[in-house]
Write a structure and sequence with these properties.
alpha+beta
Length: 439
């Protein structure tokens, strides 16, 4: 049959479902529904077409089970960590007899319950387009419902109000410029800079501390506040935004992307009527981004289509304590980023989706944003420019490429922009401090 030629000959082979995916009829492999050529070729239960259809010898390969974690050193017989909540360390024989065996590959024919088990575990490579399958989408809705039904307890705050900036690594120059501008416009709120491991070194950290900015390594907090960060994927930076908001030391916080700075002191945002009424303000994306949140996408999350514009998360205002359950649901959607970000564009709309899923309203100061060459102007309650999100004109120390947006700074300074001279001065100071040989 056309399409089966890539599969090894095996008496357990069933019908071809789609190119690269066929059913498996092996009676001794629990939970196995469909396989690709790779899984079929390495399976310990594979039998040739001419062998009898009796159950093959029970030779179990631990990596076949989706629940299996890392081997435990120094154990005999050999054991591995089991990620299933009911087990700890397991042997080959334990796995062979286990009723909770879960094959590593998602398929369109898995039960919703099995798909949920998959999605509770650390991410791994799956067939192309798995996020479009109805059983997986229902599993994701069920997992979100579980999060709603069993919210995590509130993590207490240590300060009342502050600013949270996310940005490290190649975003660090932009984050420094933003912190400098916050102080330049007269804002005295305490600040936190959230980053991933190794993204802020011992040279850069004192520069932020001089501005009253506390640097927070999110990877160092994962043991205390577990989170499903994707590994080796630039999407981690998007995931970090929701994580930083959830576990900041502030009760009320203004979140800023590394490349988003205020044009005046933003401290009075906490006193606006929209914030006082809702405990949350979400700014709109530009009109051309409306297509990034269409009805079929909101259907996936089990909510009605949005009547207003898509969200833009370069800035976000929230009372953590008042909106804790909404933040936890948004955090869940970002933890499931390998699913969520394939449905919608990154983290930005996870917040209004979470609020709408819980039937909670959020505030808007102005129903419009203004695109410019360098990025987006976001407005205050008078619809006057309040933030400049430099999403396509980031500050860098060289020819730096960014994954999330195509923008890079390198075409010169636009001195007609507000505070541009101060931005240039801040970036030059950062360059001299971190790259003195180029000074």
């Amino acid at each position: 049959m056309e399409g089966l030629r890539d599969f090894p000959l095996c008496g357990h082979g069933g019908e071809l479902i789609q190119p690269g995916l066929r059913t498996c009829l092996a009676p001794a492999v629990l939970g196995l529904a469909q396989v690709g050529p790779g899984e079929c070729g390495t399976c310990n239960y594979r039998q040739s077409e001419v062998e009898s259809q009796t159950t093959p010898p029970l030779r179990f390969h631990l990596a076949n089970c989706r629940h299996l974690g890392t081997p435990v050193a120094g154990t005999f017989p050999p054991q591995s960590v089991c990620l299933h909540p009911r087990y700890g360390h397991v042997t080959h024989d334990d796995c062979r007899r286990c009723e909770d065996y879960l094959f590593p590959v998602l398929t369109p024919r898995l039960s919703v319950a099995q798909a949920m088990e998959h999605r509770r575990l650390p991410p791994t490579t799956q067939p192309q387009g798995w996020w479009t399958w109805p059983n997986v989408q229902q599993a994701e809705r069920n997992l979100a419902d579980e999060r709603v039904a069993h919210p995590s307890p509130y993590v207490p705050h240590h300060q009342q109000r502050g600013i949270v900036i996310v940005g490290g690594g190649k975003y660090l120059p932009s984050a420094y410029v933003t912190a400098r501008i916050v102080r330049h416009v007269g804002c005295e709120l305490p600040m936190e800079l959230w980053h991933l491991d190794g993204e802020v070194d011992d040279v850069a950290r004192p520069l932020f501390e001089e501005l009253g900015v506390r640097c927070v390594d999110a990877d160092a907090l994962v043991q205390r506040h577990p989170f499903r960060f994707l590994q080796g994927n630039w999407w981690r930076g998007w995931q970090l935004k929701a994580y930083a908001m959830a576990y900041s030391s502030f009760r009320e916080l203004l979140f800023l992307d590394a490349d988003c700075y205020p044009l005046r002191d933003p401290s009075d945002l906490f006193d606006t009527s929209a914030y006082r009424e809702h405990g949350c303000v979400i700014w709109p994306d530009i009109e051309s981004s409306r297509c990034l949140l269409e009805p079929h996408q909101t259907d996936v999350f089990g909510i009605d289509p949005f009547a207003d514009a898509a969200a833009e998360s370069g800035q976000f205002l929230v009372d953590r304590e008042r909106c804790w359950n909404e933040l936890m649901l948004a955090l869940h959607y970002n933890a499931q980023a390998d699913f969520t970000y394939n449905i919608i564009w990154g983290d930005k709309d996870t917040f209004p989706i979470a609020w709408k899923k819980l039937g909670t309203s959020y505030g808007r100061l102005c129903e419009m944003s203004q695109p410019i060459f360098e990025g987006i102007y976001q407005k205050d309650e008078r619809c006057e420019n309040l933030f400049l999100h430099r999403c396509t004109g980031k500050f860098t120390l060289g020819d730096t490429r960014f994954d999330s947006t195509p923008g890079q700074h390198g075409s010169g300074w636009n001195m007609s922009l507000p505070l541009e001279a101060h931005c240039r001065e801040a970036l030059n100071d950062f360059r001299l401090a971190t790259m003195p040989e180029e000074g």
